[in-house]
Each structure stands twice: as structure tokens, then as C-alpha cells.
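pinned: reference chain
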Amino acid sequence: MSEPNEVKFRLPRCHGSVPRARAALRAKLGEWRAGRASAEDAELVLSELVTNAVRVPAPGDRLVGVRIECRGRGEFLRLEVSDAGEGRPEVRQPGELDKGGRGLLLVEALAQRWGVDDRRPGIGKTVWAELLSPATDFTAAETRIAAVSVRPGQCVRAWGAWHTVRAVRSEWFASGEPAVVVVLDDGGPALRLPVAEPLTVRTTPAAEAAPVVQS
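pinned: its C-alpha cells
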């Protein structure tokens, strides 16, 4: 798999940040030559994620963080929006007369996967969504990266099976050397590795995960 295109930026917590995020996404996807259909769906999803982030109660000086990752020409897109607010967003089932509350329903309908991760500093959260263009299959695409580069939402191979990464944090070995702790979604033991330790990762989980084999 080719290296992904990536951009990160921060926005103030105001409603004007929603069209600004959408415009930035449109510009970068045009630069990366992503397909039109991918761009349209991604704009809708990013708009909803940023809208939720600017509405959540948080200290007034806190910014909203946005990260966009694109592989190929939009065959795979990952959108991340971080805020300093408490709580976690939940999909609601609004009534016919309700004027709001449908944002995450739209995200759930358009995204292949979405979720929420705690931010590394321990303040707030990151809401992410992954979109695949029709007929795209990244399940066989694998690469080796250093443990320090692993991100939540990726899949890593450990103990003979694939596991989705829930969180990544930094620690120290007793020797004083830095370590990376990779927490897995399935509740199994976390991986505690040197920062340069190579891990095999892929973007999306396997359709059928093999049973974990303890070494």
C-alpha cells in the first residue's frame, strides 16, 4: 500500500469552523485527486463531527483538532475530530418533529466504521470515521511500522491474529528506555513494546479474525 496523504489543523470552537473544515477537506482531496463521490460523503461526515465538537461544553480557549488521512485516490478516508469536552457522543433516534439529533445517524450510514477514543493527554476525546469507496477492499493491505507510529483504529497482528487498536500511550521500561503500550479492543493483554519495535498493521479489520494463539 502506498503511503497515506495526511493533514492536521485546528479550528476555534464556533459554528464558522464547520464550513472551514469542509472547505479544507475539499481542497486537500482535490490536491490528492480523490474521487468526487468520496469527497461528497466525507464532507457530510466531517461536517457532523465538527458540528458536535463545537457544540460540546468545553473551556472557551480550547480548539477543535482535525486530522484527515487519505489513501489512494480516496478509496480509504479516515476523519478524526478532537475536542476537550466530557462524555461520548451516542447515536440518537429523534422523533419526526425533532429538529436535530440526526448527525451521528448520518455518520453511521455513510462510514464503514466510526468510534470514539480518549485523547492521549487525558482531556477530551477523538471521534473518528472511516469511509471506503464502493468495491474497495483494503483488508489484504499490510505494512510494517514502528510501534510508536501505531494509531487507534488500526489493526495490528499479534499472537497469530488481527486486533483493532483502542488506544496507544507512552510509558517507560524499568531500564529508563521509552515504551509504547498498545491497548486492544478485544480486552486481551496490551502490547508493551520498545518505540522502534516493528508491528504489522492494516487499515481495516479482517472479515473473520482468527482465534488468538498465546505464545
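why pinned: The chain has two domains: 5-132, 143-202. The first strand starts at residue 5 and ends at 11.
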